[in-house]
Amino acid sequence: MLQNQFQSCIKACYECAEACDTCAAACLQESDPKIMARCIMLDDECAAVCRLAAQLMSRSSEHANLLCQLCTDICDACAQECGSHQYQHCQDCAAACRRCANECRRMTQLISGQGTSAGAHSR
Questions:
Q1: pTM above 0.70, yes or no
Q2: Composition of the chain by helix, strand, coil, percent to 5
C-alpha cells in the first residue's frame, strides 16, 4: 500500500492518541477519578493502538488493515465512553476518536478494495 494514500488516517491516529493522552491525564485530576476508570483505561488502550496503527501504515505493513480494524473498534468504544461524560476533555477526545474511527474505516475499505494481502485477511 502507498503510505501517502493513507496520510489522513495516519494523521487522525496521531491526533486521536494525543487527545486520549490528554483526556486520561485530565480524568486523573478530576475530584473522583475512580468513576473515570473505564474512560482512563480506554484512553490508554486507544492511544496505544492508534500509535501502532499509524506506525504500521507508515511502513506500508501488510498487517495495517487488521490493526486499523481493531483501531476502529477501540476508537468507537472510547468515543462512546468519553462522550458520556460532560467534561470538555472527554468531549474533545470523543470527537477525535470518532474522526479516527471514520478514517480507519475508510482506510480498511480502500485496502480491501485493492485486493492486497492485507485486505485478504479481513475477508
A1: yes
A2: 85, 0, 15
In whole angstroms, what separates CA 97 from the centre of its chain?
Answer: 6
Write the DSSP symbol of residue 31.
S
pLDDT single digits (tens) 34-70: 999 999 999 999 999 999 999 999 998 889 999 999 9
Q: Are 82 and 52 in contact, with CB atoms under 8 Å apart? A: no
Tell me the Cα Rg of the chain: 15
Residue 56: partners with Cβ closer than 8 Å, 6 or more residues away = 63, 64, 67
Count of CB atoms situated within 10 Å of the CB of 123: 6
Residue 7 backbone zone (phi > 0: left; psi -120 to 50: alpha; other: beta): alpha
Given phi > 0 = left and psi -120 to 50 = alpha, else beta, which region is 116? beta
Q: Residues near 64 by Cβ (< 8 Å), separated by ≥ 6?
A: 1, 6, 53, 56, 57, 107, 111, 118
Domains and CATH numbers, the chain: 6-112 (1.20.1270.360)
